[in-house]
Amino acid sequence: MTPPLRFRRWLPLLGLGVVLVLTGCDRQQDTLAPKSHASTDIANLFWWMMGVSWFGLALVVALMIFAWRKAHRRPGHEVKEGEQLGFRVVIGAGIVFPIVLIAALFVIGDIFVIKVTQAPAKDATRMTIVVTGHQWWWEVRYPGTTAVTANEIHIPVRTPVRLEVKTADVIHSFWVPELNRTIDAMPGKRNAIELYADAVGRYRGQCDEFCGLQHAHMGFYVYADPPTVFRRWLANQEKPARTPGGGLAAQGKQAFMTSSCASCHTIRGTSASGYVGPDLTHVATRSTLAALTIPNDRRDLSHWIVDSQAVKPGNQMPNMHLSGDKVKALVAYLEGLN
Ligand code: CUA
Would the CB of 215 count as within 6 Å of ligand 1? Predict the structure, then answer.
């Protein structure tokens, strides 16, 4: 049985609507699946506000139906003197009261969120992580250590960490929906928030302030590790880069240091000390490249070196026009930096 023509015209629109709704079914970056005390409080606040809003809507609709039915029962009715009171009720309950209520909800909601998501104070016993937003990736530093990484932040599970956010260029915003609210990275300013996870796992985050062409490709992961795993990870990140024993990887190192790679990237323990692109000292320990744009495997890494502009147009890395052999050697070197 085919649906009538009138209905069939709307089918593509209906399909599009269903697709849009289904995209929300991905459980990544779900604000309503909180994994910390701060995000749990935010989710609860959301449900309370939602409940109050639905109650208000139901009340207004009920009153409208009531008024409509009453008006229909008395056709040809004219407004009399005494109905001035009704007019005042409309102004009071229909305009003044909603403005006061919405303003109060806004202020209370703000104060509540600021209170429950506050960054832990800076002190000697507390771990601080400094994240810097770049167009379009995240630099991650662990003050008090030499560890520098990019786009993948490790924290010990069930430990409040002070996260400080700044920017190297334009405004970005750091957000891990399952762990806390969003926090802006403002030029000339350092904002702080708590980073805390209830359970071991990997949490996806995203820049949520439009910051240029590749804003959408400015993702990151927060890994909440068991404390011993975290300490091992940090100790490894602190070490200078591994020196290749010989062969293709050694040729790759030579190629890296003598080309423009070294003027944009740092590899600790070598002469490469650029700061335009991410620190590559332990690049092989990361699961993705270009802020979660591509997986960190041999094929994608090669493609990135040869033609990064095709992968992520507008990024700071120029196409290097390197020969196939040089690319193979570079990949062999970088794959060994774990
Ligand atoms: Cu950085 Cu959007």
Answer: yes
